[in-house]
Amino acid sequence: MRVAGAAIPEWWVYIVRCRDRSLYTGIALDVERRLAEHRQADRRGAKYLRGRGPLRLVLAQAIGSKQLALRVERQVKRLRKAEKEALIGRDATADQMIALVGSRSGARRS
């Protein structure tokens, strides 16, 4: 899709595995750049990831708009760790990740 000759940026949802095997989910226009920011452990990287390296990118899917990527990120963050591991294990497609938005929209965790 193009607007005035410029491509509309595509947002990605990604999951990073930390040294302690915990998982971190985020969104970015450029996943490799964002991962480099996380690894630098400066103020640009997520506070959660500081001191948890080495970090390994385990899943990244192009989602589309920022709004949709934020919604998918929120739903992935609400998943139990085992459910996130299942997404990673089957290398979930963008469609499967987007489907989480509709199927879990009312779900709450205690």
Structural class computed from helices and strand pairing:
alpha+beta
Query: What is the rounded distance between the termini?
Result: 40 Å
**How many structurally independent domains?**
1
Instruction: Give me the number of helical elements.
Output: 4
Question: Could you tell me the mean pLDDT?
Answer: 87
Strand order of the largest sheet: 4-3-5
Q: Using DSSP, what is the number of strands?
A: 5
What is the name of the CATH architecture? Answer: 3-Layer(aba) Sandwich
Looking at the structure, the CATH topology is GIY-YIG endonuclease
Explain the overall architecture:
By secondary structure, this protein is α+β, with helices and mostly antiparallel strands. The protein has one domain: GIY-YIG endonuclease (3-Layer(aba) Sandwich), CATH 3.40.1440. Helices cover 38% and strands 24% of the residues. The chain has 4 helices and 5 strands. Helix 2 packs across helix 4. The protein is globular and about 35 Å long. The C terminus is likely disordered.
How would the blueprint of this fold be written?
Blueprint: E1 2-3, E2 6-7, E3 11-17, E4 23-28, H1 31-40, E5 56-64, H2 66-78, H3 81-89, H4 94-103
Antiparallel strand pairs: 1-2, 3-4, 3-5
Helix pairs in contact: 2-4
Feature tags:
110 residues; alpha+beta; GIY-YIG endonuclease; three-stranded antiparallel beta sheet; 5 strands; 24% strand
How would you summarize this macromolecular structure in one to three sentences?
The protein has 110 residues and is of the alpha+beta class.
